[in-house]
Amino acid sequence: MIEKTASAAPADRGTRIALCFALVAERLTAYYEHGQWLNEAQGASLAADWLSRSQRSLPLAERRQLSAVSDDLAREIAGSLSREAGLYTAHELMEALDPNYVSEVGESIMSECEGRLVADGAI
Known about the structure:
Elements: H1 10-34, H2 40-53, H3 60-80, H4 83-96, H5 104-120
Helix pairs in contact: 1-2, 1-3, 1-4, 1-5, 2-3, 3-5, 4-5
């Protein structure tokens, strides 16, 4: 029997961090464009869609955990910004989903995603 190690493999770790970041970007965009937050199930479903594009998968429980962490972070970000700053941040994060786009805001949020996932035990 193989036991789960305390930390995910480096590729899995990077995938989880990137997925959390993408979910934060999507959540903020939905909030600022439509005035609604994605629920946990919608986030988990969106995570499955993102993973399938790269022919990867994660169990539903892990996708829900990533969804919850991204929801907490996105709401915290939205709560700390004016509407204009929030719109800019959401746009900047969506742009930062392109690996060729360099963004200090994106790097900062990516780092925050990593810290939150470590704290939550997701990586």
